Amino acid sequence: MVGQAGAHRVLLLDKSVILRKALRALLERFHDLVVVGEANDDLEAVATMRTHDTDVLLMVDDVGVWDTSQAIENIRNEFSRVKIILVTGDRPDAQTVYRAMRAGVTGCISPDSETEDLVKAIHLVAHGQAVLSPECFACLVDLAAPPRYSSEQVGTMDRLSAREQEVFALVARGSTNRDIGRHLSVSESTVRSHMHSIRKKLRLTNRVQVATLALATRRRDRAP
What are the phi and psi torsion angles at 199 (to 5°)? Predict the structure, then answer.
């Protein structure tokens, strides 16, 4: 597929051929993105970038297949200009995220990110901005200062109205007030009002705490 002028050039790095093909099909729906190639390890990625100009490397973290931070360093040693987004495992490990950031990734996102969030992340890192999904951000917060939420706080969804629960869930996905407003067809001021109510009901002081608690709640709900 040939993208429009100025389209961001993306290289896919994943051990799974099936997942690479699925990612390619997904990204090629967008005219401002061009998939320039696929690679199954860092050596193949480097070889591909030598012959194909690349703006963003989308790298899936294959735990147990390669040393993620070392692979990132290998790529950055030759292609420091290329921005790297790491797609983490289902439950990102704080040390893996931290080492990846230290090694030079520009973004870390979770595998259950929405398509629009993935595309937005590609555009943001291509323009030099860092991107962290709520899950990855929470990992780093936990690493620096593990939050302590009571079981009562984690299980207080019943205190929130139906609309507040929707906002709470969207915050856990990393949505901004504008994104939430568009999703729920309400104004940003209304979203801010819901956020204020959520913080008051859950005895939280800022948005980071809301996002972290929302993730803790989601992890509890997903636990077998």
Answer: -60, -40
Q: What sign for the dihedral angle of Cα 17, 36, 45, 116?
A: negative
Place of tokens 């979203």: 191
Domains and CATH numbers, the chain: 8-143 (3.40.50.2300), 151-222 (1.10.10.10)
Residue position matching structure tokens 């595998």: 111
- Convert the pLDDT of each residue in 113-132 to its tens digit: 888 889 999 999 999 888 88
| pTM for the predicted model, two decimal places | 0.65
Amino acid identity at 223: A
Residue 81 corresponds to which tokens in the numbers above?
A: 């200009």
**pLDDT digits 0-9 by tens, 157-216:** 678 899 999 998 888 776 778 889 999 999 989 999 999 999 888 887 777 677 767 766
Would you tell me the crossing angle of helices 68-78 and 42-51 to the nearest 10 degrees?
Answer: 20
